[in-house]
Amino acid sequence: MKVEVRLFATFRHGREKKQFMEYKDGVTVREIINKLDIEEEEVAILLINGRDGVLEKELVDGDVVSLFPPVGGG
């Protein structure tokens, strides 16, 4: 199955902004971020198809996962 992963801010360093990845059925968001070498604690916002998501969510073909690190500014 294919999943689109969108990375934002510092998660883009050394990685593509959008990645289209092939996974086995039932892959979770946690497995994807582990494969991308992103620490779970670094994920501040996780969206699946534009809605709040959780690391344990099993994805289906065509899902879009968006990952944001904590951001600051002022």
Automatic annotation (TrEMBL):
SUPFAM superfamilies: MoaD/ThiS (SSF54285). Pfam families: ThiS. It comes from the Bacteria. CDD domains: Ubl_MoaD_like. This is MoaD/ThiS family protein. It comes from Oceanirhabdus seepicola.
